[in-house]
Design a protein that fits this description.
The protein is mainly α. Helices cover 74% and strands 0% of the residues. Helix 1 runs parallel beside helix 8, helix 2 crosses helix 8 and helix 3 crosses helix 5. The mean pLDDT is 85.
Length: 192
C-alpha cells in the first residue's frame, strides 16, 4: 500500500464527512420550510421554530452552504499541495467529474463567484442561480460515496459508511427544533 495514497484518501474522507455534515445542516434548515419536502404541519412548526432565532438560522444556513461547497470541492483540487482524488487516480477522477459535470459546474461557480470572493460582475443570489436541486445534490453525494469507496476498496481494502454521522446530526436537529417549539409555547403561556 502506498502511504501517500493512504494519507490522501484519509484526508479526502474527512473532507467528505465535513461536506456531508454541512450539507445536511443546510438542507435541513433551508428545506424544512418547504411543503414539498415535509408535511404542511411540520413545515409550519419548523418556520415557527426558526422564527424564534431568525438571525442564527439565516447565518447557520448560509455558513453551512458555504462550508459544504468548499469542503466537497477540496477533494477535487488540482493544486499540487492539496489532498485530492487526482493524486489517487486521475483517470477515474476525471470520469467522475464528467459524469457529475452539472453539479460540479454549479458548485464551482458558487465557490469561485460567491464564497471565495464576491464577483462584481456576477449576481450573488447564488441559491437561485447556482445551487443544484436537492435531488441532484443527494444523487451527487451518493455517487461520491460510491466513488470514494471504490478507491478505498482498491487501495486500502476498506470502505466507509458516510450516512451514520448525518443520521445522528438529523436526530439532533430534530430535537433542537422540538425544544425550540416547546420553549416558545411555554414562553407564550407564561406571558398569557
Amino acid at each position: 500500500m502506498d502511504e501517500k495514497i493512504s494519507e490522501h484518501l484519509k484526508e479526502i474522507g474527512a473532507s467528505i464527512f465535513e461536506a456531508k455534515s454541512a450539507y445536511t445542516i443546510w438542507k435541513t434548515i433551508a428545506y424544512s420550510r418547504s411543503n414539498g419536502i415535509v408535511s404542511e404541519t411540520l413545515a409550519k412548526k419548523y418556520v415557527e421554530a426558526q422564527n424564534t432565532a431568525p438571525a442564527f438560522f439565516v447565518m447557520t444556513e448560509r455558513t453551512s452552504l458555504a462550508t459544504f461547497v468548499i469542503f466537497v470541492l477540496q477533494s477535487f483540487d488540482r493544486d499540487k499541495q492539496a489532498h485530492s482524488f487526482f493524486k489517487v487516480d486521475t483517470t477515474a477522477t476525471e470520469e467522475f467529474i464528467k459524469e457529475n459535470q452539472e453539479v460540479f459546474d454549479a458548485l464551482k461557480l458558487s465557490r469561485d463567484k460567491v464564497f471565495a470572493h464576491r464577483d462584481i460582475k456576477k449576481n450573488t443570489d447564488y441559491i437561485k442561480i447556482t445551487i443544484p436541486a436537492i435531488d441532484k445534490l443527494d444523487a451527487f453525494f451518493e455517487n461520491l460515496f460510491v466513488f470514494y469507496n471504490k478507491l478505498t476498496g482498491k487501495h486500502l481494502d476498506s470502505s466507509t459508511i458516510f450516512d451514520m454521522s448525518t443520521n445522528d446530526l438529523l436526530r439532533e436537529m430534530e430535537f433542537m427544533f422540538m425544544n425550540l417549539t416547546r420553549g416558545e409555547m411555554i414562553r407564550k403561556a407564561e406571558i398569557d
